[in-house]
């Protein structure tokens, strides 16, 4: 299957099934496979921090990626960089060192990097000075056991040598001592993992040097997640290959027997393919590259990863964070619900001190008294995923918690920071819409991003940061990066406005509204009103009643944008008051958004409709395509956000994508126009054809609120349309 075919097929595989509704109206609770209820987890990592570390951090900030740097107190550490928080720090484990059995000091294993034994080696091992030996030998575990005659190391039959692995545990203690919080993930120095069993009691997982270019990336993430699926043994993660090594794809790595996977184009297609497969399998994707040799490939990998996963609910995590969440999640034995109280039973775990990442418990209030309400929890913090789906973050060992309705919700904010700036003389004031740390990169005018040096850092989480510059610095290139408390980041260039790409935008707060749009309704006083909206501010209220005078032969109250666009983005928010929008039985439905070609083309081929209390997408074409997608519950008394990307065509390049409340719910390619007619115009509002010609249904009234209407050109982005930039 080609990448394009696979990508087109993917939405049908990954579209989240509608949650089951307990017929008794009982609250549903379950453990989320990924933190925050995401569909997959992504990490990119490197070992040692040297050349290219500051540009790589800049690109991680720019593309909102959380990489991990495996470093050692002996090499490659930069605590100023890692303490800032964009780059996670974990252990680059020095497999060539040990705690000397006689002196108790940490040093190189005698003759490890030599091809001949010396007197130092002969003093501690059963060898003769001058005798030939393998390079990078002996390693912890079986090799040390064999060469020492059972004094050191570990044997698969006998277990630990007579030194009881003190040569290793002393080294582990020394490595972990450089951290304020001891790490439990590591990368093997020299890729040496000859006996991974010796590391399992001390770590949650470790990355080895291996990877594949053959389409079998390791993305396993415990029970029911990733490929291979259901990998639940610690050893599976202590000796783990990377899913990809993007920077090494074209060259291969001869030392581990991996040949070139092809050209740079093949590399990009392969990365996208494996990322999309990981969405499907709900796995943990990890890429490794040496930043110090990868150059701008770091940027390229981040950019491609973000564009490939556009609109997917992805958690970008540090390697350490991902493993801590995995094992905390695996430790939940059962989740039960009684009323609004959720109880958890936990399995025993041998490294409880490592489980510091909360477990995400998914709460579904559909069909309960809490449906459509704001929630608070007696334990942990709450993330609202949609009208009726929440995630409660509970610490490891929590026995129970209770959820309740609240009029003053405080939800986890995973939004990307919005950054403002004002440069007055040599004083730069940076503002953020949420408490953030800020990094300021200063460079001469025209400096390439790949040449950026160390930034100035303001490490307090606050909304206003002030920097004093020299006149030369103020006249040069200045980049501001902001990092929120929840690890979301963005970068702006001072003095450079971000590309707008918006053809139209109206938050409906002004005295006039939807300038340039046209109205279609029966002329009733209530059809469209500009009023105070539910939840505050202003919005448009649409009301349609059975028996309303027709407009253009239909019972409708709509607005339409007259410009017909071949390729564009659209976004809007809608709200349906429960007292004025009763669910209907049967097949009656109505449109709330449509792209209509007009001119005798017949019914529109692309519509967003409501039927029986659910949102549906109808996507048709001349070839007989009749796609009917159930994309979610039309929860009442809740603001729903829709984002559409559209490319209209009579041919195969036609494309429509739809996001509902941040989740990609449709991605359909192929012809989507009636041949021989003009491009469509977008229409928003209510059109109920079952009420045409005095028709009736089980209801006689429909009320919908509309707000935050945007239209973007083909170069707009999901983030712009969704209000993330």
TrEMBL record:
Keywords of the record: Lyase
Superkingdom of origin organism: Bacteria
Pfam family, one: Polysacc_lyase
Any GO molecular function: lyase activity
Family matches, as Gene3D superfamilies: 2.60.120.200
Name this protein carries in UniProt: Polysaccharide lyase-like protein
Organism whose genome encodes this protein: Pontibacter mucosus
Organism classification: Bacteria, Pseudomonadati, Bacteroidota, Cytophagia, Cytophagales
